[in-house]
C-alpha cells in the first residue's frame, strides 16, 4: 500500500525513484484506464526499472474515462475550465485532506506560511463555474492566511483592499483579468506579489510571456510577475518567481518528450512535450503526458512555451470507445 507520508518526505533522487516506481506498479494494477493504456502500448510494468521509462498517460483521457483507483467513491470531482466548447476533464479526488496537504506544503516551500500573507484571488471565469480545483486551493489558502478575498469584476474595490491591507500580499489572477486591471486602472502596488495563473482563456490575444509580464510590471510598478502552473488533472502546483521559469516541489518531476516520438526523452534546453510525474496523484494517475510544450533547465526547473497543435485528439484513439 502507498504511504502518502513517504511521498511528502521525499528528500533526494533516490527517494523519488523508489516512491515513483512503487506508485507506478500500484496504479498499473489498480487504475483501469492506465492498465489498459499500458496493455495497448505493449508495456509490461514489471520490466520498467527506471523513472524515465515509465509510460505516461495522455492527459486527454481524463475527459473520456474515470482515471481513478481509490478504494471508495471520490470525496470531490474537480473539472477543467472547458474553454472552447471541449469536453471538460474530470479529476476524481479521493481525499480533500490529501489535496489540502499537497497544495499547502507546496506553497510553504516557495512562499512560507500562508498566515504571513494576505491572499487575493482575481479569478472571474473560475469563480463563475463549479468544480474548480484552483478556486478550492485559493479559498483554503485564504482561510489559512486569515485575510484577503475573491474579486470578480469590481476592480476599484480590489484596489482599495490592496491599498488598505498592511500585510504582505499575493494577488493571484487569471491572465486576462490582470491585463484588464492593468489597462483600465494601472494601480501602483506595494508589498504585493502579482501572480498569474494561466492563459487568456479565449478573452484576449495570447502574447509571448515576456511581453505580457512587462505590460503588468509597468502597470503595477513591480519588478517581476510570479506564475502558478497547475491543472485540474494534477494535485500539485509549480511556481515561478519571474521570467517564466518554474520550480516544483520534491514529489513532482517534469520530463520532456519528443513530440513525434513520445518514448524518446529530450535533454535540457531542447523544446518538447511536457510530461509530469506528480506523486501526490496517488488515487488517479501520477504519470501524465500533457498537451503543453516547454524546455527543461539543467537544474530541473522548466519553462512552458505553448500547446501542441491538435492535442485534444492525439493519443486517445486507442482507448475512446
Protein model, in words:
By secondary structure, the protein is an alpha/beta fold. The protein is 31% helix and 21% strand. The protein has helices at residues 4-8, 13-30, 32-40, 61-64, 96-111, 124-127, 133-145, 155-164, 175-184, 209-220; strands at residues 57-58, 76-79, 90-93, 118-122, 148-151, 169-173, 192-196, 226-229, 238-240, 245-247, 252-257, 272-278, 287-296, 302-307. Strands 1, 4, 5, 6, 7, 8, 9, 10, 11, 12, 13 and 14 form a twelve-stranded mixed β-sheet that branches. Strands 2-3 form a two-stranded antiparallel ribbon. Helix 2 (13-30) crosses helix 3 (32-40) and helix 9 packs across helix 10 (209-220). Residues 312-321 have low confidence and may be disordered.
Task: Offer a few descriptive terms.
321 residues, Rossmann fold, 14 strands, alpha/beta, two-stranded antiparallel sheet, disordered C terminus, Luciferase, domain 3, 12-stranded mixed β-sheet, 2 domains
Care to give the gist of this entry?
With 321 residues, the chain is α/β, with parallel strands linked by helices.
Helical residue percent band: 25-40%
CATH architectural label of the largest domain:
Roll
Number of H/I helices: 10
Sheet bearing the most strands, described? 12 strands, mixed
Q: CATH class of the largest domain, anyone?
A: Mainly Beta
The gyration radius over C-alpha positions equals 19 Å
What is the H-and-E element order?
HHHEHEEHEHHEHEHEHEEEEEEE
Query: Could you say what the CATH topology of the largest domain is called?
Result: Luciferase, domain 3
